[in-house]
Structures are given as C-alpha cells and as structure tokens.
Write a structure and sequence with these properties.
Number of domains: 2
Shape: globular
Order of helices and strands: HHHHHHHHHHHHHHHH
Pfam family, one: MFS_1
Largest sheet: none
Keywords: Cell membrane, Membrane, Transmembrane, Transmembrane helix, Transport
CATH topology of the largest domain: Growth Hormone, Chain: A
CATH architecture of the largest domain: Up-down Bundle
CATH superfamily of the largest domain: MFS general substrate transporter like domains
InterPro entries: MFS, MFS_dom, MFS_trans_sf, MFS_Transporters
Number of helices: 16
CATH class of the largest domain: Mainly Alpha
Helix content: over 70%
Structural class: mainly alpha
Radius of gyration: 21 Å
GO molecular function: transmembrane transporter activity
Organism: Nakamurella alba
Number of strands: 0
Length: 381
C-alpha cells in the first residue's frame, strides 16, 4: 500500500488522489465479494482460485507499466477484485475439505499464514526495491501470484475425497446455481444476527490497524519508531493462531471470540494513556495479542454457519459483512477525528468492541458445532 501511494504521487497525483488510489484496493474488495460468490458457485472453488491468481498478476503488471493515475487506479481495483475472489474461494474450499473437529485449527492456520505474509511482505518488497527501484514491489506481487497459481493448479482437489459426507464433500456445481442475492435473503436471519457480530469484530480489528500509527504520530514518535511499534505488535499478532484454533476446536468459538473483543476494547482505552515509545509499544502488543487469538475466527464462524448447498453464495455475503467492517473502521475514526480529539475516537471504538463482545456472546453458541455437541452430551447424560 505505501508503494501504491508513492507510485500515484510519481505519476502526478495529489495527496488526495494517491489516498483514493490506495482506497481502491478496499473498494474493489467490497465490490467483488458478491460476484465472487456467484463465480465460485458456478465454476467451483479451484477454478475461482486460479482466476483470482491470474487477475492478481494482470493487476500487478498494469500497475508496473502504468503511465498515468487512471491506469494505476484500474489496476489496483483489479487487485482488489482478485483478493475478494481468492479470499472467498479459499475459505469455501477449506470449509468443505476439513472435518468439523479440525475446522478452527485449519482456518486459524489460514489466518495465521495470512498474517505471516503480511508481516514478511514489506521486508521482501523493501529488499527488492533496494535493487530495482520502487517498481520492484509490483514484481514481488506478480511472482507471488504466479506461485499461487501454480500451487493451486497442481494441488489435488481434496474436497472431492469424501463423497459420502455431505458436510465435507463439494456439491456438484449446478447448471444454474442459486443467485447470490436470493441465497442471502434466504439466510437473512443468521446474517442479521451472527453476521452483525462479525461486522463489530471487523470494525474493531481495522481500527486497531489505524489507531496505533495515528496515535504514534500524535505523541511525536518519528516514522522509524512508529514502524518499530507496528512491526513488533505484528509479530505478537501472528504467533498465536494455532493455539487459538486448537482452543476453539476443543472448547468452542466463544472462548476465543469474547476475550479477543474485550482485549481489543481495553487496548483501545489504554492507548489514550500512552505518551511515549515504551508505553505505546506495550499497548500495541496487547492489541496484537487480542487480534492474534482471533486469527481465523471470522472464517471459522462463517464455515460453521454456511450451508452444505449454496456455500459460496452464503460466504459471499459473510465476507461482505467482514470487508464492510474493515472499510468502515478507519472511516469512522476519520469522521470522529474531524470533530473531536483522536482519544475520543479510540474510546468510541472501545465501546464498539465491548458491545460486539456481548453480541457475540449471545449469538455464537446458537451456531457453534462444539457448543452444540457439548450441549447434546449434557442432555444425553
């Protein structure tokens, strides 16, 4: 994202234009969520993964060769489209392929690997840029997209290995799959209950990513120290995914979801009381811990709620809720900061986190297969 902004500026764009080009990544993600569900329902998860990888390559190539801001913006929008399609298809694929008793560990690992990539990506990009110039970041993107394409192309489709188990097997792709909007209307109750909890969770997570660097700037930390805070917090974030997944598989989803939201809320309050590098670093690590124990949580909850038939369409709506929260969080901070101090924005996000924690506490047990199994055993006893 920093390279996108710098490229836009090099092509003659203003600061506002550069910010808009960066935002096109998230805009493309949100716009493509529902169409990605329709594509996956029609052509299957593996084909959608291949298509997404190809779109990523084309988007990276377009950004590399862009001679004006319009071409750069279109290329970044395409990258957003590919991210939506890849994210949905990989979640749907694992939902079908992995047994329920391993689901949280599998999806938490997926979330953890994503975090590792987000952590390492800037360092790989910086290394290449130091030898090739700023355009090297797009070369990294293109090489990664080719790698993803080849891995998917030559991987065995493990979702087809359990034809007798409707919970794991991928249903045959129908000639005319159910339209996405009709499927979402049919599942409006769960999207309007548990899905709203995911919206709360996404807002809290996205605001954590925004509030730490903004607060670092407000207390006078330079760019190097602010980056160090963010990097160390990211390391804390990415180390906890597997234990969290194992805990969810054994004790239920709520045992991770509720503490994650509470910790994020407490961290948002504590940010307000930091005044230097050390104190902000400690709070940022707390926020990273709260976020890290929730790795894969949104995908796991979506997998629990997804129907065996029409899974891609449902997950399209699920991801739309999540991505909308990711986009709304920073906008909320910006809106509050226009009329009040940044501390006020942090407190508001803390309140949203606490409300979200209570909301998830109420709704998760109704759809959690681990809780349902536990309840069934208690009734049998």
């Amino acid at each position: 994202m920093p390279v996108i902004a710098l490229t836009a500026a090099d092509l003659g764009g203003s600061v506002g234009t550069a910010a808009f080009v960066v935002a096109l990544l998230g805009i493309g993600l949100v716009l493509a969520d529902l169409p990605a569900g329709a594509i996956a329902a029609r052509f299957g998860e593996k084909t959608t993964l291949l298509l997404a990888s190809a779109l990523e390559f084309v988007g990276g190539l377009g950004a590399l060769l862009a001679k004006n801001v319009a071409v750069l913006g279109a290329s970044i929008l395409l990258v957003g489209f590919s991210a939506a399609a890849f994210g949905l298809a990989r979640q749907s694929y694992l939902t079908a392929a992995v047994p329920v008793d391993l689901r949280a560990r599998a999806l938490s690992t997926l979330g953890g690997v994503y975090r590792i990539g987000m952590f390492l990506g800037p360092f790989v990009g910086a290394l290449v840029i130091s030898h090739t110039g700023i355009q090297g970041a797009y070369l990294v993107d293109m090489v990664a997209s080719v790698g993803a394409f080849l891995l998917v192309l030559f991987s065995r489709d493990i979702t087809a290995d359990a034809p007798g188990d409707p919970a794991r097997a991928v249903a045959a792709v129908p000639e005319k799959p159910e339209p996405v909007l009709r499927a979402l209307f049919r599942h409006r109750r769960i999207l309007g209950t548990l899905g709203v909890g995911v919206l709360f969770l996404s807002v809290s997570r996205a605001c954590r990513m925004a509030i730490v660097p903004l607060w670092a700037a407000s207390i006078g930390l330079d760019a190097a120290h602010a980056s160090l805070v963010f990097g160390i917090a990211g390391a804390a974030d990415m180390l906890l995914f597997y234990p969290a997944g194992a805990l969810m598989d054994r004790k239920g989803r709520l045992v991770v979801a509720f503490p994650s939201m509470i910790i994020l809320g407490v961290g948002m309050i504590l940010v307000v009381f930091t005044s230097g590098f050390t104190s902000l670093l400690l709070v940022a690590m707390l926020l990273g811990f709260g976020n890290g124990i929730g790795a894969g949580l949104i995908m796991t909850l979506g997998a629990d709620a997804a129907p065996a038939v029409g899974r891609p369409q449902f997950l399209a709506g699920w991801r739309l809720m999540s991505d909308a929260g990711n986009a709304a969080g920073p906008l909320l901070i910006s809106g509050i900061a226009l009329f009040a101090p940044l501390a006020a924005a942090s407190i508001v996000i803390a309140v949203i986190s606490f409300v979200g924690a209570e909301w998830l506490r109420h709704w998760i047990p109704r759809y959690d297969p681990v809780s349902a199994a536990t309840l069934g055993r208690r009734r049998a006893d």
